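Translate structure to sequence.
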């Protein structure tokens, strides 16, 4: 049985969560981080003292994403809306969790080869090297791997809440169209990944696919699991391939 919060899922509301200026506040740190990552050719990095370059970038991403979620939470609290209303409730049974996990794995089975193939085609015709950027940011030590896994879980929760939850809700309310909302949030999602350079266009496609998954399931939960798993597995595979 679905929870009551599911009745307030991301695509069932017609009113914006917050005024336009709040959305600007949400987008600005994302834009700054993406621009910084474009120039850094890696994750945004505050160059924190006493830690490695990669750990510093991981902590920078963690701070940025949780700061944006804090901004969203404050807006929701002001309206008397819970975070669960964007996520669409919580798992009430173990079976519900495994159902969403199965959907997440199924999504990855389809999306990962598709996105990978599109990325290869795009880079072949337009140039660039996404693998170089990914090689630079993936973990090389056990400590970096642990923090990477935490960052992956954060990306799964925070980015889905931000893009497929908050921004989709805002764009849907402003345009009166869920289709336009999914398209717009995917564009912003792609632009938020500056370290891919031209490959940001393909990340937009991933954002659209995740948006369609959220609309189909009327929940962010499968996307959160899939997004987090994709990032986590990518980091583990990169780490093990270096250790081999």
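Result:
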């Amino acid at each position: 049985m679905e929870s009551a919060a599911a009745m307030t899922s991301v695509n069932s509301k017609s009113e914006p969560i917050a005024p336009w200026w709040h959305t600007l506040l949400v987008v600005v740190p994302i834009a700054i981080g993406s621009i910084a990552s474009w120039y850094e050719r890696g994750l945004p990095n505050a160059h924190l003292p006493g830690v490695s370059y990669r750990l510093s970038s991981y902590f920078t991403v963690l701070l940025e994403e949780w700061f944006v979620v804090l901004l969203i939470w404050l807006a929701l609290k002001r309206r008397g809306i819970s975070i669960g209303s964007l996520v669409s409730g919580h798992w009430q049974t173990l079976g519900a969790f495994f159902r969403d996990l199965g959907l997440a794995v199924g999504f990855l089975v389809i999306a990962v080869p598709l996105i990978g193939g599109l990325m290869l085609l795009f880079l072949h015709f337009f140039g660039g090297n996404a693998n170089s950027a990914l090689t630079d940011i993936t973990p090389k030590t056990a400590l970096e791997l642990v923090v990477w896994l935490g960052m992956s879980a954060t990306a799964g929760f925070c980015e889905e809440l931000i893009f497929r939850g908050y921004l989709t809700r805002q764009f849907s309310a402003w345009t009166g169209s869920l289709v336009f909302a999914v398209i717009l949030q995917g564009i912003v999602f792609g632009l938020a990944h500056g370290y891919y350079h031209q490959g940001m266009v393909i990340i937009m496609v991933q954002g659209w696919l995740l948006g369609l998954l959220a609309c189909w399931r009327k929940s962010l939960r499968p996307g959160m699991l899939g997004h987090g798993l994709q990032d986590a597995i990518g980091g583990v595979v990169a780490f093990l391939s270096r250790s081999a």
